[in-house]
Amino acid sequence: MSSSIGVPIKLLHESQGHIITLELKTGATYRGKLLECEDSMNVQLRDITVTQRDGRVTKLDQVYVRGSQVRFFIVPDMLRNAPMFKWVQPGATKARGIGMGRGKATVARAQQQSRGRGDRGGFRGGDRGGFRGGDRGGGFRGRGQ
């Protein structure tokens, strides 16, 4: 699992092998054992009980559901104690050795501004917005002038 995925997707992956319930956008509910799931929330279930909106109940051996059609999932209550829900200590998130180093970010920012990139206009130290008129002369003066 990649670290770029969110907690809900991680929770869904943790639910593999357990019985889950999901409701589709059509209103039908599917309850069965989660065999496989993807980061796009596509799921594969086995031994499913399907309850339609009108109350009809049917049994299916296996089904694959596209994630974009799912309204919500109900996962096992035991996953409430999953490690992804543990509170992180305030000082534990500070990474060491990452970034520009102490004070270097301020120096880099100052160097960028001294090169003329911090202001508007494209020329180094030159006229800001030089072709749009103004009191500096030159450039575009309007039609017929």
Automatic annotation (TrEMBL):
Residue ranges annotated for the Sm domain, each copy included: 7-79
GO cellular component terms, semicolon-separated: cytosol; spliceosomal complex; U1 snRNP
Main location: cytoplasm
Places the protein is found: Cytoplasm, Cytosol; Nucleus
Nucleus among keywords: yes
Positions with biased composition (Gly residues): 136-145
Family annotation (Gene3D superfamilies): 2.30.30.100
One GO BP: spliceosomal snRNP assembly
Annotated region described as Disordered, given as residue ranges: 96-145
Keyword Ribonucleoprotein: yes
Keywords: Cytoplasm, mRNA processing, mRNA splicing, Nucleus, Ribonucleoprotein
Compositional bias of kind Basic and acidic residues: 116-135
GO terms of molecular function: RNA binding
Listed PANTHER family: SMALL NUCLEAR RIBONUCLEOPROTEIN SM
Family membership noted in the UniProt record: Belongs to the snRNP core protein family.
Protein name in the entry: Small nuclear ribonucleoprotein Sm D3
